[in-house]
User: Fold Suppressor of disruption of TFIIS from Coemansia helicoidea.
Amino acid sequence: MTAGGSMDGAQDERVLFLDIDNCLYPPDLGIDKMMKERIYAFGRENGLDAESVEATCLTYYRDYGLSVRGFIRHHGIDPAAFNEKVDESLPLEAVIATDPALRAMLESVRVRRWAFTNASLQHARRVLRCLGVDDLFEGITSCDYCEPDFPCKPERRAYDKAVREARAGAPQQCYFADDSIKNVAAARDLGWTAVLVSPAVAQVCAAAGSEQVRTVHQLPLVLPQLFA
Assistant:
């Protein structure tokens, strides 16, 4: 029986949704910083002055979930150009190494595995490939920057999209791990079992009302029902 299968061949509606960036790999790799630098550079190229670009991007991130959505709404930028100059320009292959421990953890998952990211599909695939786990996911729910008003976490529409694409069952059959407290809280509000993946102090988790682990490798400690 393969992961996500059942003894009688019926599809298992239980799904473990996993965020990718700063969740499947540690935040201290610095990828988030590199991405922010590219976003700020893109903002300057599209009319934002150097003094305000950082604050503007942070405002867009806060108000719209992703800075690119603010760029699209207020500056009419080409989403494909943003993807090329930000996501696709990251030197992921030089920074992210294969993670045998992550692979072993994922291989022991007894339910279906699905990646759920706010990044582009190309970026998601690159990260999973660098980590050496791309073959362990049944699919990926990502953001298509070229789709008008595309949904992203923590919006309800994004979670609905993930459930639809993964063909998941009822909320109690959805399990989720993410490094964002807002994303974890949103999943929990929907009835999902949600885990915060963060090396930060434990009281951060209390605000989300959910379990917390310092690294994704520790998921079996808080979700033992999903592991062999």
Notes: Residues 6 and 138 are 15 Å apart (CA to CA). The chain has two domains: 15-25+96-226, 31-92. The first strand starts at residue 15 and ends at 18.
